[in-house]
Amino acid sequence: MATEAAPEWLDKGDNAWQLTAATLVGLQSVPGLVILYGSIVKKKWAVNSAFMALYAFAATFVCWCLWAFRMSFGDRLLPFVGRPDFAALGQAFLTQQGFAGAYPAATLLFFQFVFAAITLILVAGSLLGRVNFRAWMLFVPLWLTFSYTIEAFSLWSPNGFLFKAGVMDFAGGYVIHLSSGIAGFTAAYWVGPRSAKDREAFPPNNILLTLAGAGLLWMGWTGFNGGAPYAANIDATVAVVNTHFCTATSLLVWLCLDCLVFGRPSAIGAVQGMITFLGWAAMLMGVVSGSVPWCTMMVLHKRSRFLKRVDDTLAVLHTHGVAGSLGGVLTGRACGKARPACIPIGDDPRYVGLAYAVRDGRAAAGLRQVGMQLAGIAFIAALNVAVTSAVCLVVGLLVPLRLGEEQLAAGDDAIHGEDAYAVWGDGETYEQSVHGNHGYPGQPRGVQSRRDDMI
């Protein structure tokens, strides 16, 4: 069916920026988090960790096109979820104007996909170093379907009940960061911990690549928050500037706390501080996002028997869950719909940040907004504990959630038959390693790889 290439409602500038922003967010996952995950873990887990991220990106896109996008932003089925259908596969739907912005639904589908994908990849960060890859393959589509779509529809869809109630979530503080923190921690509880040896010492295999992955993640925030206003306008510009200012401040605060408490600056700590930034405000929020998650991770976590019991590999609960909650609360305190860095909430004058409400003599409206932000946190937390637990229990009936002890000891070689780097020791030679001639014609007799020994 022929379609008009440039209908009257299409803003080419907005469409170009939205596609660019989506690509920048996609680069945060592939290759950003693929590189970061593959390098921040022990060498024996490098391939598996990076591959978990790559798989989640691919599987999410297929499910997103088939049913998840319409469940997140389609016609209302229930107050908290849309009706699944195959409309997103048709040209007629993809080329019509989307629910937001002056561009087609296809642009919104792609932009919202990269948000969904990075949420699943963040959940993976809590499970690195012991989750069964086959269990992860099942977990991704199930969690996307029964958790993420409900969060996205409730908070971001114009038909969602939390959206209508006025809960503000600018660029995923709740839908992405809080949900991945709670879901990752909950899944880590059900999967179980890494091996005792890995929990005792889990050094990065390549800190330089960790910093490179973190750099891709940082620059991708330009599209993450700059694309959230759905237009190439002043709101997008202010969001980008505030994003980088807040990120840099958060990194520096975390770095200073490491120096004061541990006596040395940590590159890995700086990466954690960079990740915890709250997204759209500036220096004050950067100070909060760099200090509060640091305290919960470095102080509270070590004193809590329950928190220590759950093996959250990359501390996603703190770097995303705590930071996302702070972002939501501070949004309710400081954000007003007339301010350029904030998400608009229709024309209802009730929806105003507490700080501006007090200034304007409407403290009750501001307190109501803070209350709605707290209600949003409660909803996301409860949903993710319940759904993630249910998904883990169902997957556990089909395949083991946690790898066996022999696989935990071997890592990538046992799971994928592959090794991240051609580095060997303890008398091992190239021919004896997984990078040698194993399995190919001409291999000398008697030469066996570590995989043969395990079999």
UniProtKB/TrEMBL annotation:
Protein localization: Membrane
Superkingdom classification of source: Eukaryota
GO molecular function, one term: ammonium channel activity
Alphabetic keyword roster: Ammonia transport, Membrane, Transmembrane, Transmembrane helix, Transport
InterPro entries: Ammonium/urea_transptr (IPR029020), Ammonium_transpt (IPR001905), Ammonium_transpt_CS (IPR018047), NH4_transpt_AmtB-like_dom (IPR024041), RhesusRHD (IPR002229)
Pfam families: Ammonium_transp
Predominant subcellular localization, coarse grouping: membrane
Transmembrane regions: 16-38, 50-69, 109-128, 135-154, 174-192, 204-221, 241-263, 275-300, 377-399
Annotated Gene Ontology cellular component terms: plasma membrane
Occurrences of domain Ammonium transporter AmtB-like (ranges): 16-421
Spans annotated as Disordered: 432-455
Topological type in the membrane: Multi-pass membrane protein
Family: Belongs to the ammonia transporter channel (TC 1.A.11.2) family.
Entry protein name: Ammonium transporter AmtB-like domain-containing protein
Biological classification of the source: Eukaryota, Viridiplantae, Streptophyta, Embryophyta, Tracheophyta
